[in-house]
Design a protein that fits this description.
Layout (H helix, E strand, L loop, with lengths): L2 E3 L5 E3 L32 E3 L4 E5 L12 E4 L2 E2 L4 E2 L5 E11 L2 E4 L3 E6 L5 E7 L7 H13 L3 E7 L14 H8 L6 E4 L3 E2 L7 H4 L8 E10 L2 E10 L8 E8 L2 E2 L25 E2 L2 E5 L6 E2 L8 E9 L9 E8 L5 E8 L8
Parallel strand pairs: 1-9, 3-10, 11-12
Antiparallel strand pairs: 2-4, 4-7, 5-6, 5-8, 8-9, 8-10, 11-13, 13-14, 15-16, 16-22, 17-20, 17-21, 17-23, 18-19, 23-24
């Protein structure tokens, strides 16, 4: 029998998607996506322990030949086209099928089985006019250098004396809900205060710990229209009252920042000017794609995915190369349980 290997045939991990559409609260109109986001090779790059992982093969003619194929995971054949594992780690899979009497072997793809890790949410209530606010930005910069398990949102408010073009229109509503009265104010997982001097250990002590739910992000930009897809999976099923919050943030915005630490020799902002003329503002909250406090997550069985999507027409003043998506699952009290972030057009798997 002739055997051939065709590397152009992609072995796909099939994900059955059930899209829903959300609207914001007085923020930006969203429309139902006309097409789902597809990924050329692995549709799901990571899965949770014991979660079913379906495989699929589409041949060069565009035909689904999954049912006639034998799949091999780490070199061993499996029954059918669905795999699961209670063991975490990286796996390899390929498929073999007959086409016109010729045995075809697909390319090999890798995927991971994981225990979800917690990404801590930090929200920085700030303003370009706020002279003490650079200290929180400095603490966040230090935190980024030692941990990837942190999701940051900088929420700006303007002032008559020093206008802030990064002002978020619904900042007052967030301040009222989360008890923010003075700036700077930093919140951990939405609800808990990150007190001065904003010790890094407050975050690193909980960041990256094992948890029971995970979030994946993917997005596509066509012209100025951004389509965002969010996948959520729970190990033990969704919890009543949980909500999904999805924000658009922008990095690398250069704008003056009032600096009360200009004469403080112990500060990283010493002698940088007051105001600092070319301060770089990052993770600036631009738009809420979900409702501001989140959209209800419907009842979802253990290890099944909840998938939703959003579209937004990006304003011309946004620098698309600097845009990120932030998603968080919060409970009925608005406390964040886990989060994820990704650059636009990045396929960020469960982690």
């Amino acid at each position: 029998m002739i055997t051939k290997r065709i590397p152009k045939i992609a072995l796909l991990l099939l994900l059955t998607l059930s899209f829903s559409c959300s609207k914001t609260e007085e923020n930006v109109p969203l429309t139902t996506p006309t097409a789902e986001i597809t990924v050329d090779k692995l549709v799901r790059k990571a899965s949770l322990r014991n979660q079913e992982i379906p495989f699929r093969i589409i041949n060069e003619a565009g035909l689904d030949v999954t049912d006639s194929a034998t799949f091999y995971v780490d070199g061993e054949p499996i029954e059918g086209s669905v795999f699961s594992s209670s063991t975490i780690g990286e796996f390899e899979v390929y498929g073999v099928y007959l086409e016109d009497g010729v045995e075809v072997t697909t390319n090999t793809e890798t995927f991971n089985v994981i225990i979800p890790k917690r990404k801590v949410v930090i929200e920085d209530y700030t303003g370009a006019w706020c002279g003490f606010c650079p200290r929180v930005a400095g603490a966040i910069t230090d935190l980024h250098e030692i941990s990837d398990d942190v999701t940051v949102v900088a929420i700006h408010e303007t002032a008559v004396s020093f206008p802030d073009p990064m002002h978020f229109d619904q900042v007052q509503l967030l301040k009222d809900i989360f008890g923010v009265e003075g700036f700077p104010a930093a919140r951990i997982n939405r609800s808990n205060n990150w007190p001065m001097p904003h010790p890094i250990s407050d975050i690193t002590s909980i960041a990256g710990l094992d948890t029971n739910l995970s979030i994946a992000l993917n997005s596509e930009l066509t012209g100025n229209e951004l389509l965002v897809q969010v996948n959520v999976v729970y190990e033990e099923g969704s919890v009543q009252g949980d909500k999904l919050v999805v924000y658009l943030v922008e990095n690398g915005i250069i704008y003056g920042q009032v600096n009360y630490y200009n004469e403080d020799t112990t500060s990283p902002f010493f002698n940088m000017g007051d105001p600092i003329p070319d301060f770089e503002h990052n993770e600036v909250l631009r738009k809420s794609l979900s409702s501001l406090l989140g959209d209800a997550i419907p009842s979802t069985a253990a290890l099944n995915e909840y998938v939703t999507s959003f579209t937004i027409n990006l304003p011309s003043e946004y620098v698309t190369d600097n845009l990120d998506i932030v998603a968080m699952v919060v409970d009925s009290n608005n406390e964040a349980k886990n989060s994820q972030y990704a650059h636009i057009e990045e396929d960020k798997p469960y982690q």
